[in-house]
Amino acid sequence: MNQKISKIYLLAFLMLSLSTFPLWAQEGPLKLASDQWPPFTDTDPNSAVALNLVREALRRIKIETEVTIQDFEDVMTGIEHNSFDGSAALWMTGEREAILLFSNAYMQNQLVLVGKRGQDVDLLAMNGLANRSLGLVDGYAYNRDFENVDDVTLIHSKSDEENFQKLLNDEVDCILVDALLMEYLLKGQSEEVREHLVISRKAFIIKPLYFALRKDLPGAEKIIKQFNKEIKKMANDGTYHQLLGLDWLAMDMNNDGIAELIPKGKVIGTVPPLSSYMVYADGEEKPTSMKYYVGGKYYDSWDDIPEKHKGTVNVSASPDASNPGIRVNFK
């Protein structure tokens, strides 16, 4: 009997040791690198929502990070030469998969077309914007997608705010805006947006964002696996919403291929959300109805959610000067 008890204690000790063994056993922080791409990656103290999400997820699994912002070519060269352990925000390509382990997509660069009220931006997108002018922001990586387009006139601006003003002043036919920025705008100026603007239902360009580590980095696979788990926990407990400054997310919580609507807290308001940020999508239009994930439970519709979760929610703009949200002067 004593021998059996000893074996049980030994097994329990080994399991505890394995569960508490650090994922990152190297000296110093995890060295990550990205290029400058606001509002996703940027230098401090500017807003960098992708970096903030990755840092928080890694902090929860007790991994310190050191982030370097530099030109993208130098980022990839540094990873290939082991100067960096990986990147917090990368697009996936076959070439990169050869040397890197990628997490699940934790965000997307969902670029939507925005036009003035009365335009059919979805039709414009279907026609490839032929013979139209398109407003872009200088320095954003999506500019590379239009390098060889001949029948679209590209009008460049220094900022998203300037891009919107050109649209409202009829200096461009439509503009390309990240869906995340449109969520910020809808949150702060919903009525004005709906009065003056129209947004494409389908993303014009979709670029999933991944956290990636070198394959030869000790413990890389375990870190990626734990990172994936923490991201879903952050969506469930409201941390993801808080870091992005949004009230609703759409994320596939149970891996069934269908996104659920997830509120920031347990009190969700009195009416269904007008919009939500799709954390990951496959390029199709958003479903007209989605399930809800509230308080750790799934609900097929808004009406199925218990009344205890429904109540007035105070919405306020962030006092943080580095908040990535924008404001547009519609007058």
Question: What's a quick, concise take on this entry?
Answer:
The protein contains 9 helices and 15 strands. It is of the alpha/beta class and 331 residues long.
Taken as a percent bin, the fraction of beta residues is 15-25%
Q: Cα-atom Rg, whole angstroms?
A: 22 Å
Distance between the termini: 83 Å
Percent of residues in helices: 25-40%
**H/E topology pattern:** HEHEHEHEEHEEHEHEEHHEEEEE
Largest sheet: 8 strands, mixed
Description:
With 331 residues, the protein is of the alpha/beta class. It is built from nine helices and 15 strands. A hairpin with an 8-residue loop joins β11 and β12. The radius of gyration is 22 Å and the shape is globular. It starts with a helix and ends in a 32-residue tail after the last strand. About 6% of the residues have low confidence.
What key attributes describe this structure?
single chain, about 325 residues, alpha/beta, five-stranded mixed β-sheet
Write the layout of secondary structure elements.
Elements: H1 2-20, E1 30-34, H2 49-60, E2 65-69, H3 72-80, E3 86-90, H4 94-97, E4 100-102, E5 107-116, H5 121-126, E6 132-137, E7 152-157, H6 160-168, E8 174-178, H7 179-196, E9 197-199, E10 205-214, H8 220-237, H9 239-244, E11 248-251, E12 260-263, E13 277-278, E14 291-294, E15 297-299
Parallel strand pairs: 1-2, 6-7, 6-8, 11-13, 12-14
Antiparallel strand pairs: 3-10, 4-10, 5-8, 5-9, 5-10, 11-12, 14-15
Helix pairs in contact: 2-8
